[in-house]
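Figure 3 (text version): structure tokens given as input.
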């Protein structure tokens, strides 16, 4: 495998890992979010499941075994009410956007547009959850911060 394809595969696997974490995280969000935003949480959950399934197919198309989901993920904070559920949803989206930003950089022409669309969708959902935006979604270094890990951690 060429160095470029190897980099693309690593970025695909990282995006897949982030999508596994987002699906898990939205399970927590959905169990805690208020009724007013439950449909929004369900829509995001479904979007991440669809992206995850697409990434599994893309990794297999490159001849690799897709990274498996963990049995569970440590959350960055305790989710006990609607406010913390909304905060978790926003953080999940920001982390996913960061990983897709890496995939945009690593992807070849055939995958770059798809990765950019996923980045845009995650950034839009993050804005909806937190009510504010950032100049360069998915590019933590532009904001002067270190890149966040792909999966929620304690």
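Below: residues designed for each position.
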């Amino acid at each position: 495998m060429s160095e470029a394809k190897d980099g693309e595969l690593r970025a695909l696997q990282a995006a897949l890992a982030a999508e596994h974490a987002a699906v898990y995280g939205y399970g927590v969000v959905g169990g805690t979010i208020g009724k007013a935003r439950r449909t929004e949480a369900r829509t995001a959950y479904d979007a991440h499941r669809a992206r995850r399934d697409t990434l599994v197919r893309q990794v297999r198309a490159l001849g690799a075994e897709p990274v498996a989901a963990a049995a569970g993920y440590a959350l960055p904070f305790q989710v006990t009410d609607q406010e913390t559920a909304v905060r978790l949803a926003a953080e999940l989206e920001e982390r996913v956007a960061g990983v897709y930003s890496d995939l945009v950089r690593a992807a070849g022409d055939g995958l770059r547009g798809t990765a950019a669309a996923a980045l845009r969708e995650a950034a839009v959902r993050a804005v909806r959850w937190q009510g504010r935006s950032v100049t360069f979604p998915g590019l933590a270094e532009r904001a002067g911060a270190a890149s966040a890990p792909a999966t929620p951690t304690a």
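The mean pLDDT is 88.
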